[in-house]
């Protein structure tokens, strides 16, 4: 079951969604601190986080899958959001420098095809940042937030998927160590949960934040060609036609 854009927008308008956006946004910003002159593309429902880059990036776009729906973004400026087919993005090869995936990979029916399409539109040495629910975390086990829908991933699963789609993982982080409880009194301790979980490297974080670079040249194992044995030929004299005719003459 996938969520539509109304459910996602409703979550981020609530206090729990605001807390989630703040903690995930810190993890994203820690890896992409400088996007000046970069072309940034967000896929899925990335609008709560694209504001981190809009003022400094050369270009900032939001692509939302057709089955999810689309919302206007930004609300007070010319729209930079579009409804797309996630496996056939309306961009040429190498059109963007960075791609942010949020509420995208876990919702995709074919994660490998989605990442290969991301690979296609990324420039050489381009980078992708994936925010995806942690299979071992509490957020993936409760459907009270968008992170409880779709397919969560373990660390080894996401690494394998990235490598299969010709990406090289370079950086790893987590966020959302606090349980997804929306009680106001409980959320007062959200910062303490986040600091403690990050300090202890606890395995129950709500989401993984994985950065990877585009691998342009894939290593191919060398094959030794089989040597074909050709039999050696002995030299032989070929008779000339004129000499044969002279020998037969009377």
UniProtKB/TrEMBL annotation:
Gene3D superfamilies: Vaccinia Virus protein VP39 (3.40.50.150). GO terms for biological process: methylation. Residues 25-129 form the Methyltransferase type domain. Keywords: Methyltransferase, Transferase. InterPro entries: Methyltransf_11 (IPR013216), SAM-dependent_MTases_sf (IPR029063). The keyword Transferase applies. GO terms for molecular function: S-adenosylmethionine-dependent methyltransferase activity. Transmembrane segments: none annotated. Pfam families: Methyltransf_11 (PF08241). This is Methyltransferase type 11. It comes from Rhodoplanes roseus. The lineage of its organism: Bacteria, Pseudomonadati, Pseudomonadota, Alphaproteobacteria, Hyphomicrobiales.
């Amino acid at each position: 079951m996938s969520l539509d854009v109304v459910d996602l927008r409703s979550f981020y308008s609530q206090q729990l969604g605001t807390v989630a956006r703040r903690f995930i946004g810190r993890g994203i910003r820690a890896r992409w601190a400088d996007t000046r002159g970069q072309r940034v593309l967000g896929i899925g429902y990335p609008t709560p986080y694209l504001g981190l880059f809009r003022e400094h990036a050369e270009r900032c776009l939001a692509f939302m899958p057709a089955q999810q729906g689309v919302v206007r973004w930004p609300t007070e400026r010319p729209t930079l959001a579009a409804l797309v087919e996630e496996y056939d993005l309306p961009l040429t090869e190498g059109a963007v420098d960075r791609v942010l995936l949020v509420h995208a990979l876990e919702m995709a029916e074919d994660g490998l095809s989605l990442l290969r399409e991301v690979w296609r539109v990324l420039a050489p040495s381009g980078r992708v940042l994936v925010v995806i629910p942690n299979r071992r975390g509490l957020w993936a086990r409760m459907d009270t937030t968008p992170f409880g829908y779709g397919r969560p991933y373990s660390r080894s699963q996401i690494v394998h998927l990235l490598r299969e789609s010709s990406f090289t993982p370079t950086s790893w982080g987590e966020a959302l160590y606090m349980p997804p409880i929306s009680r106001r009194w409980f959320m007062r301790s959200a910062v303490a949960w986040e600091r403690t979980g990050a300090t202890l490297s606890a395995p129950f974080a709500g989401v993984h934040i994985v950065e990877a670079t585009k691998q342009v040249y894939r290593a191919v194992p060398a094959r030794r060609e089989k040597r074909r044995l050709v039999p050696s030929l002995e030299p032989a004299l070929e008779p000339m036609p004129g000499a044969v005719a002279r020998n037969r003459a009377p």
